[in-house]
Write a structure and sequence with these properties.
Distance between the termini: 33 Å
Mean pLDDT: 96
CATH topology of the largest domain: Rossmann fold
Strand content: 15-25%
Order of helices and strands: HHEEEHEHEHHEHEEHEHEHEHEHHHH
Number of strands: 12
CATH superfamily of the largest domain: NAD(P)-binding Rossmann-like Domain
CATH class of the largest domain: Alpha Beta
Number of domains: 2
CATH architecture of the largest domain: 3-Layer(aba) Sandwich
Largest sheet: 7 strands, mixed
Bound molecules: nicotinamide-adenine-dinucleotide
Structural class: alpha/beta
Shape: globular
Strand order of the largest sheet: 9-8-7-6-10-11-12
Radius of gyration: 21 Å
Length: 409
């Protein structure tokens, strides 16, 4: 099942439970605008590079569209549309005043020089600048894009509309970005563990953790969980994983990965593959790499009683059902990995006010927003006797439906 179908499945389940009319369901599922543009640029060798860019603006009933911009060869309208709708539900579940959007350019960013990437980005902005803006649609980094790409977007946008750093988030801290954004998603994952353990009267000290993916989200989640006293016994990247029951040396592993060396060559613990990592006997499992990794067979073998989804869509719906039946608590992606969009929201607020927040303020506000969202979703899950994922979709869809009805059609 592709992510498009998985999102539609959860939507349908929640819409049914909420008793939404067929017309309202259709309205909530249909993107408001879908943009497809040609983005041709001169390449360094004098040839013309032909690319296609996309931006899907799913729903704006709760605020401007918000969502990442990815540079990847798999980008297409369907995938971007599914991810745009996921952003609508994610921003609603953590109650930030946005709708959902997503975009991208079909390309292989690693095959382009820095100058080509800059030309590509600027040309894309020339094509879509009238459809984005701090009050319209606010892109952010995603796969294949980073703070530098956001800086180029803000600069190009300013040529048409004047100084508006709030047109994008995830900018470098030295160019109207916000402190704490880079590690925000991983920090939020750890916060979810804190909330679960608090309710179960358990201490995270000594709890064992396996983290799949040691990139932005996985490495930060591992670090924050270790700071809470947990013992990270397994991590992995695309080259494979490491498992050491005594606990891994995260700082040295981070330095190894930063030096662009494969994790599997680090030399501590036992080498394992990515599927083995998911079924280790640990207390907490954090999938933080790709989508679609927990399928039915894996779900039957998972031993961790708690899964916190750092990645988007890591669990197939059939596997999710098995996990729920087995009593394994899953904190779903739209809640667990919302730390990034929450701090993006703070960056946007900071830009609109031309006022800089301190690091302590960012962390305090992020923790507070994530804890409130957890509390609400957890109580809905309990009172309606459904999984936290169904509860999260229910909370989100109810908020968007209410805003849509209040605003009128
Ligand atoms: P990243 O590129 O920084 O890191 C990805 C990690 O996954 C790397 O360690 C990579 O080696 C590993 N990986 C890649 N292919 C793999 C495979 N086949 N098997 C195992 N590991 C593999 O990406 P990221 O920003 O950390 O994002 C990770 C996930 O979190 C993605 O699903 C992304 O959509 C989601 N996410 C990220 C953010 C954010 O703020 N970065 C926010 C929300 C959701």
């Amino acid at each position: 099942m592709r992510s498009t179908e998985a999102v539609a499945y959860y939507f349908d389940h929640a819409a049914e439970a909420l008793g939404l009319s067929a017309n309202l369901r259709k309205l909530l599922l249909t993107p408001e605008r879908s943009i497809k543009v040609e983005v041709s640029i001169p390449l360094d060798d004098g040839q013309i590079g032909n690319f296609v860019g996309y931006r899907v603006q799913h729903d704006s009933s709760r605020g401007p569209f918000k969502g990442g911009l990815r540079y990847h060869h798999d980008v297409d309208t369907d995938e971007v549309a599914a991810l745009a709708s996921l952003m609508t539900w994610k921003t609603a579940v953590v109650d930030v005043p946005y709708g959902g959007g997503k975009g991208g350019i079909q390309c292989d960013p690693k095959a382009l020089s820095r100058n080509e990437l800059e030309r590509l980005t600027r040309k894309f902005v020339q094509r879509i600048h009238d459809f984005i803006g701090p009050k319209i649609d606010i892109p952010a980094p995603d796969m294949g894009t980073d703070g530098q790409v956001m800086a180029w977007i803000a600069n190009e946008y300013a040529k048409f509309h004047g100084f508006e750093p709030g047109v994008v988030t995830g900018k470098p801290v030295d160019l109207h970005g916000i402190v704490g954004r880079e590690e925000a998603t991983g920090r939020g994952v750890a916060r979810m563990v804190h909330e679960v353990y608090k309710r179960e009267n358990k201490s995270p000290v000594g709890a064992t953790v396996a983290v799949q993916g040691f990139g932005n989200v996985g490495s930060a989640a591992a670090r924050f969980l270790a700071e809470m006293g947990a013992k990270v016994v397994a991590v992995s990247d695309v080259t494979g994983g490491l498992y050491d029951e005594k606990g891994l040396n995260l700082a040295e592993i981070a330095a190894h990965v930063k030096a662009r060396k494969p994790l599997a060559t680090f030399g501590q613990g036992k080498l394992i593959d990515n599927e083995e990592l998911l079924t280790l006997p640990v207390d907490i499992l954090v999938p933080a790499a790709l989508g679609d990794v927990i399928h039915e067979e894996v779900a039957k073998k998972i031993k961790a009683p708690l899964i916190v989804e750092g990645a988007n869509n890591p669990t197939f719906p059939d596997a999710d059902r098995i996990l729920h039946e087995r009593g394994i608590l899953v904190v779903p992606d739209i809640l667990a990995n919302a730390g990034g969009v929450i701090v993006s929201y703070f960056e946007w607020v900071q830009n609109l006010q031309n006022f800089r927040w301190t690091f302590d303020q960012v962390v305090r506000e992020q923790d507070s927003k994530m804890s409130q969202a957890f509390e609400h979703v957890h109580s809905v899950a309990k009172s309606t006797n459904v999984s936290m994922r169904f509860a999260a979709f229910r909370v989100a869809i109810e908020r968007v439906a209410r805003a849509t009805e209040l605003g009128g059609y």
